[in-house]
Amino acid sequence: MDPNLPAHRPLSVVQLPDGTYTYADPQSLPVQQAPQQIVQHIHHAPPDRTVQRIALGSGVGAGAVAAGVYFGPLLVGVLTAIAANLAMLAFLAAVMAWGVVTVVKSVSGTGSKAASKSLRRR
């Protein structure tokens, strides 16, 4: 070996700042700065896949699991919409019943008032 040559150092694979990889001597590279911290705001929780994991463990095919992942949230959305519609219909029925009772009380004579009082006493 020639004493004028530098000592052999092993090369390693290094990722450059542009994302490409190359062989380089790690000691000859500049000191890297700490990576930039990324703050990620997540507004939705990930879907709960417990049922799908159990299904895969019990031998159900991947197609059934995929259907569960796809149609599960869809089913929840549909049931929520149905519940909202039923709640609105119940509210409208209560308002209409109150209106009918109010109109009947205001239009009716003294006989109906006496009948309603006797029913309240019982």
Please provide a written account of the structure.
- The protein is 54% helix and 7% strand.
- It is mainly alpha-helical.
- The protein contains three helices and two strands; from the N terminus they run ββααα.
- A two-stranded antiparallel sheet has the order 1-2.
Order of helices and strands: EEHHH
- Into which percent range does the helicity of residues fall? 40-55%
| End-to-end C-alpha gap | 118 Å
Strand content: 5-15%
Radius of gyration equals 37 Å
Sequence stretches where pLDDT stays below 50 over 5 or more residues: none
Largest sheet: 2 strands, antiparallel
Question: Which shape, going by the Cα principal axes?
Answer: elongated
**Mean residue pLDDT:** 77
Number of strands: 2
Q: For the largest sheet, list the strands in their spatial order.
A: 1-2
Number of helices: 3
